[in-house]
Amino acid sequence: MTVARILNDKGRDVFTTQPHRTMREVIELLASKGVGAVVVSDASQSVLGILSERDVVRVLGRHGASALEDPVSRHMTPKVITVTRDDTIEHVMQTMTEGRFRHVPVVEDGRLIGIISIGDVVKRHVNALDSERQALREYIATA
């Protein structure tokens, strides 16, 4: 199973923001859309950074409510690990586990084309294991 398959199943919607938007605006976007991360991008859909719920908690813990008026570029994670459509679920799981993050943007030719969450990856992995288990049961039953 590849990232392309996950994107085909779940869709390619990604919530993005520009680097000059305030932390308050981005937090409101996270809350209104019910998502755990927003990709910071430019007009050409290049990934400039990412801001997750965890980032928000860290910022508020360190700087307090005054950080809500800061531009998101001041607090985003600027070095974003990305994956491609051709990467496997196993590769994505390993990357997310090693990096200790829950969202990874999908990029093609330098442009953002989707985002994968750990929930997306786990769901597909569990479904694949269930299918394999069912196939083995059917095989054993007919042997």
Question: How would you describe this structure to a colleague?
Answer:
By secondary structure, the chain is α+β, with helices and mostly antiparallel strands. The chain contains 5 helices and 5 strands; from the N terminus they run H-E-H-E-E-H-H-E-E-H. Helix 2 (23-33) links the parallel strand 1 (16-17) and strand 2. Helix 4 (89-99) crosses helix 5 (118-142). It starts with a helix and ends with a helix.
SSE diagram, text form:
Blueprint: H1 3-10, E1 16-17, H2 23-33, E2 37-41, E3 47-52, H3 53-63, H4 89-99, E4 103-108, E5 111-117, H5 118-142
Parallel strand pairs: 1-2
Antiparallel strand pairs: 2-3, 4-5
Helix pairs in contact: 4-5
> What is the terminal separation in angstroms?
28 Å
Number of strands: 5
| Low-confidence residue ranges | none
Number of helices: 5
Brief summary:
Helix content is 46%, strand content 18%. With 143 residues, it is an alpha+beta fold.
Structure characteristics:
single chain, about 140 residues, alpha+beta
